[in-house]
Amino acid sequence: MRENIIEKLTAKDDKYACALADKIIAESCETNKWYEYFDDFASLINHKKSLVRNRAIHIVAANARWDEEDHIGLIMPDMLSHVTDDKPVTSRQCIKALAWVGQAKPEYIPLILACFREADLSKYKESMCPLIKKDMEETEKILTAINSGGKYET
User: Fold this and answer.
1) How many of the other CB atoms lie within 10 Å of CB of 116?
2) Cα–Cα dist 6/4, whole Å
3) Counting CB atoms within 10 angstroms of each CB, which of 19, 63, 64, 90 has the fewest?
4) Which H or E run includes 110?
5) Binning pLDDT at 50, 70 and 90, where does residue 154 land?
6) d(Cα 8, Cα 15) in Å, to the nearest integer?
7) Contact at 8 Å (CB) between 96 and 140?
8) Residue (of 133, 138, 49) closest to 98 by Cα position
9) What is the pTM (predicted TM-score) of this model?
10) Residues 6+ apart with CB under 8 A from 42
């Protein structure tokens, strides 16, 4: 099953792989059914294909709530590296997914916010920078609310 899940999430049929990822994410918001594959999902975070990275980042973020062993701590540098991913869409997806990580693991909120403050967005087209900054601002608001005792619902 492990090899099978990786094959399915990296399939050439992006519609199929995306639908599977959406199913895993939705189910991961309700149950720890997929957590046993956490390390497998995490192994896709640095995949050469940006669509696979997007899927993996969201799946990992959705499963952070079940991560009692703190596996996410081991991959936080990789997760945060995608705040400034080569592909601006992946950057935006990562920034949004980090809100889920902050909800599940508030101890990483300062690290996430520091990453946002230090992010160099100069490599992106001028049209993308405002969108990425807006995503950072929205996620920062969510993370700040969590730090103040608020909740973020997935």
Assistant:
1) 19
2) 5
3) 19
4) helix 109-118
5) very low
6) 11
7) no
8) 138
9) 0.92
10) 56, 60, 71, 75, 78
What is the C-alpha separation between 151 and 83, in angstroms, rounded?
Answer: 22
Lookup: tokens for 91:
């950057």
Token digits of residue 96: 């949004």
**Portion of the chain with pLDDT greater than 70, in percent:** 95
Tell me the chain's radius of gyration from C-alpha atoms: 15
Question: Do residues 110 and 90 lie in contact, with contact meaning Cβ atoms separated by under 8 Å?
Answer: no
Q: State percent of the chain over pLDDT 90.
A: 91
Cβ(20)–Cβ(57) under 8 Å? no
Determine the Cα–Cα distance for residues 75 and 82; give it in Å rounded to an integer.
11
Exposure string for 97-108, b = 16+ CB within 10 A, e = fewer: bbbbbbbbbeeb
**Is the model's pLDDT at 77 over the cut of 60?**
yes
pLDDT tens digits, 24-57:
999 999 999 999 999 999 999 999 999 999 999 9
Write the DSSP string, 11-53. -S-HHHHHHHHHHHHHHHTT-STTGGGHHHHHTTTT-SSHHHH
Is the CATH number of domain 2-147 3.30.479.30?
Answer: no
